[in-house]
Write a structure and sequence with these properties.
Layout (H helix, E strand, L loop, with lengths): L1 H30 L3 H39 L6 H18 L1 H13 L6 H25 L3 H18 L4 H11 L5 H14 L6 H5 L2 H20 L1
């Protein structure tokens, strides 16, 4: 266990080191920020390292094993509806807790001066992700081609891009990108891998992956529909 903790700490340090190094270099040769501000940055960097370390350990030791277990147990209940509903619930719950989504929702609320509230952006994005995660679970069960689903959903995105009010289009694409964060990714993938692992004759690689990209399209479509409704 200690070797795994050490490995994770080294991974985090290697990830954060380039950012800290670039900022320190800029401080020395270009920007010369006030000493108090630079020390604040260094303190924040230490907190980031600690936070990322704890987050990754939590994902490795808690979220991934539990997600795989839940995914593997669902088919034993003999209910496709239950599997789809659990997929929807997990997609929604992880999205509303996703840090990147929370930041985007807060920024939209702030920049629009409350015209587009944080709660609406958060809820709509989560509904979009949850709906498409549920569809992805159904796809795994019924062995529907991911190419077919991705093609149809991307065509819908392109079509909506032409009719959605202009200010909502970039927001929609950003909503899609922030849904694949540090919380949603391990939960969705682990459940899908657990589900495919107990279905006979299925490939964990081909069926267990692709869900995140598909779920992100759900967020894009949902925000564009929100834009049409609010125009």
């Amino acid at each position: 266990m200690w070797s795994e903790l050490k490995r994770r700490l080294v991974d985090v340090l290697q990830t954060v080191a380039p950012l800290i190094g670039v900022v320190c270099l800029l401080q020395l040769i270009l920007v010369q920020a006030p000493a108090a501000l630079f020390l604040q940055f260094l303190a924040g960097s230490v907190l980031i390292i600690a936070g990322m370390f704890l987050l990754f350990i939590g994902v490795d030791y808690g979220i991934l094993p539990m997600g795989r277990f839940v995914g593997a147990e669902l088919p034993r209940k003999g209910s496709v509806t239950l599997i789809v509903l659990v997929g929807f619930a997990m997609g929604f719950a992880t999205t509303v807790a996703e840090p990147d989504v929370l930041v985007l929702a807060a920024q939209v609320d702030d920049i629009s001066r409350g015209e587009i509230s944080r709660l609406i952006v958060l809820s709509v994005t989560a509904l979009g992700v949850a709906t498409f995660v549920a569809l992805a679970m159904a796809r795994i069960i019924y062995d529907i081609s991911i190419r077919t689903l991705l093609t149809a959903s991307l065509v819908a995105v392109l079509a909506l891009s032409y009719v959605t009010p202009e200010k909502f289009v970039p927001m929609a694409y950003d909503a899609g990108s922030v849904t694949t964060g540090v919380l949603t990714t391990p939960v969705v993938i682990s459940i899908a891998i657990g589900l495919t692992s107990v279905l006979a004759g299925r490939s964990t690689v081909s069926d267990g992956f692709g869900l995140l990209g598909f779920a992100s399209i759900g967020a894009i479509i949902a925000v564009m529909i929100m834009g049409l409704a609010m125009q």
